[in-house]
Amino acid sequence: MASYSVINPWNDECLGEYVYADAGAVSASLDALRRGELIQRSLAAHERADILRRLAELLKTHREELAMLITAEIGKTISDARVELDRAFNTTIASAEEARQIAGEALDSDAYPPTRERIGVVVWRPLGTVLCITPFNFPLNIAMHKLGPAFAAGNAVLFKPGPQNTASARRLVELCYEAGMPPETLQLCIPDVPAMAELVAHPQIKAINFTGGTAAANAIAKAAGFKKLLLELGGNDPLIIMPDADIDAAVAAAINQRFATAGQRCTATKRVFVHREVYARFRDALVEKTRTLAVGDPTLETTFVGPVIHAAAADEISGRIEDALSRGAVLACGHKREGNLLWPTVIEEVPDDATLVVEETFGPVLPLRQFDHLDEVVELVNASPFGLQAGVFTQDIRVMRRLFDELEVGLLATNDGPGFRAEHFPFGGVKDSGIGREGVKYAIREMSYQKTLVI
Ligand SMILES: NC(=O)C1=CN([C@@H]2O[C@H](COP(=O)(O)OP(=O)(O)OC[C@H]3O[C@@H](n4cnc5c(N)ncnc54)[C@H](O)[C@@H]3O)[C@@H](O)[C@H]2O)C=CC1
Ligand SMILES: O=C(O)CS(=O)(=O)O
């Protein structure tokens, strides 16, 4: 059977040797989940809520153990990993609370003739077995954004994390069981990618809830046929700085939302559009602050920027910076590499058609783009195939409203960056950034269907 190793991106230590799930293991998981669908029907909403609340408490109890596991597996700094655990706690508590209030509605048939004196009672029902596929970068919070709402809705869940996250995923599932989640309702299964098309197409799988890149999403959509798809994909998220911006706050947002997690967030600030009137002030303040960021060992609390996930990712990011520089871009700071460590980089005058800014660059590099009129910004942002989130620093409500109305994105954050996220807010993009909405209440409905009783 095909095997794989999980390597610590910081020190190249082999954290574990694993075997991909073969057809027999996948079949056994699906058999268990078939029983799990029946068990879910026997659970009351308050019982699901109690299980999820206990899971939230276990995530809090094991916060440090789980954070250290994330740091070891993906190189996320311990500070960022702890933040992820706190977010996963919120996501799980929200799932517990929403499990109690999956409310339907009652409709009067006589809103329109003929008079029939009937009432329609509309309720939500689970889809059945849901395949939840997660990316490497937020192994526990993105998992809980899928597992929590899916379980709360009454589904059985086949959980397929990235191979890089094997140990943290196993530990999460152990805690789900410890919280009282019946094993038949949640099965962890990590087949190799070539086996995924068959699993996606399996008739028992009623929905695929996926977070990851566009390439994988296209393969899933091709294999899925008539199934519910919830796709949370990449982003090329802009931060816009207007002349009346609070420059210090804008610099802090740019740094926190691009250089934390080594920039490996789909909602990370990928491009900063700075109005000419404040460009020099913003750039100088950004570069001065960026140069002070601690880069290195992700297990140290003082480290702000840890390694990216692997050498291929570091190669791609460095290569895109080199490409931009070869085409006339100007380096303001950074562009230094040691192994998987990439120093936070600020780069200017990047051609608008450079790969660095056209594709989603998943690393600690921040291109600055000067502008005179908002028309330029709207045109450049909407020219991207992505449309996830955006942020703008301004005090002018007219600018906020114009950008909210004209930018093709799922969320505009004012006086904050595109990395703004509250676990209970609707989350998701438009165009190549995906379809559907996560955010606990919305994800529950995405993984359910409406059933109506006429009485
Ligand atoms: N919109 C969002 O909320 C987020 C989007 N992302 C995106 O994910 C990417 C980075 O994460 P990665 O883990 O490298 O993404 P990835 O797309 O390589 O992998 C994501 C998951 O899909 C699985 N997978 C890969 N190919 C597949 C296939 N053909 N069929 C079924 N499953 C497949 C992987 O094993 C993994 O579990 C970036 O593009 C980033 O923008 C990452 C985090 C959040
Ligand atoms: O912050 C998060 O929710 C993860 S991501 O930004 O969607 O990658």
From TrEMBL:
SUPFAM superfamilies: ALDH-like. Residues 4-452 form the Aldehyde dehydrogenase domain. Keywords: Oxidoreductase. Belongs to the aldehyde dehydrogenase family. PANTHER family: ALDEHYDE DEHYDROGENASE. It holds the Pfam family Aldedh. Its EC number is 1.2.1.73. PROSITE patterns: ALDEHYDE_DEHYDR_CYS (PS00070), ALDEHYDE_DEHYDR_GLU (PS00687). This is Sulfoacetaldehyde dehydrogenase. Gene3D superfamilies: Aldehyde Dehydrogenase, Chain A, domain 1, Aldehyde Dehydrogenase, Chain A, domain 2. One of its GO terms (molecular function) is lactaldehyde dehydrogenase (NAD+) activity. InterPro entries: Ald_DH/histidinol_DH, Ald_DH_C, Ald_DH_CS_CYS, Ald_DH_CS_GLU, Ald_DH_N, Aldehyde_DH_dom, ALDH-related_metabolic_enz. The active site is at E232.
